[in-house]
Design brief:
- By secondary structure, the protein is an alpha/beta fold.
- It has helices spanning 30-41, 53-75, 79-91, 116-129, 145-148, 183-195, 211-228, 233-243, 250-257, 259-273, 282-289; strands spanning 2-4, 22-26, 45-49, 93-96, 107-110, 135-138, 158-163, 172-177, 199-204.
- Its main location: mitochondrion.
- It is found in: Mitochondrion matrix.
- Keywords: Fatty acid metabolism, Lipid metabolism, Mitochondrion, NAD, Oxidoreductase.
Amino acid sequence: MNKLLGFTRNFSNSVSLNAIKTVTVVGGGLMGSGIAQVAAQAGQNVTIVDLKPELLEKAQKSIQNNLNRVARKVHKDDPSKIESFVKEASERIKVSTNIEDGANVDLVVEAIVEKLDVKQELFNKLDKLCPEHTILASNTSSISINEIGAGIKRKDRFGGLHFFNPVPVMRLLEVIKGDHISEETYQAMMSWGKSIGKTCITCKDTPGFVVNRLLGPYSAEAMRMYERGDASKEDIDIGMKLGASYPMGPLELADYTGLDTNKFVLQVLYEKTKHPVFKPIPLLDKLVAEGKLGIKTGEGIYKYKK
């Protein structure tokens, strides 16, 4: 599958500061499609690469729906501007099942499964396929950037770009500096993040980076309180929403982000830090084993109407 949705792209021969104009996103899931959408909205030409044609088709439909919502919000009751906004952004997006089709770009962002060996295999391949100027970045939420890029040669042009779900709505982008990233690459990544409308923060390659390192203990303790029967799930969430002015309670948030994702993040944090707060939680393990992953499966801590 190699379906061109837009015009022929002009690829730059070198990438300088503030000059990322062509982007490939590897992974057509929620995160990948969201990253592709915000880049296309910002005027950049984007290729989404995924091995599964059905995921690419789903990503295209999702992006189209999201673009329509954004256009209606921005342009309100002006049908011509709404149509133009959606058409122009859509035409900047290309999809393919072949990684080679996305190699000749300024930036590649990986948004695939959170497994170290799978990510390493992908980046080792990209390192050989992509031109020398291409910056490679991982959207991992907690795996070490240094470990992911251990086998590549361009360690100076490799780092982390951790987005938050849903990407078109969440304004934050964590820019992760590995041990070997160059200042030019770091500045280019920061500038690109700002160009797609994100507020960028920087963190070194430390377990969980900023947000998940802080969110992990909060989420874990909320889960343990519910598991012990200290308080109902509703009261735990209401307590944090009204007592701490959080927009969502910790258990609602866990269901929203996915209990499987929560389990994985806690597992990585425990492996790296050995801190007891990150130890496995029997309730969380049970729900994940039963396939009750939160909103995306219709049930997690809470039950949801489809």
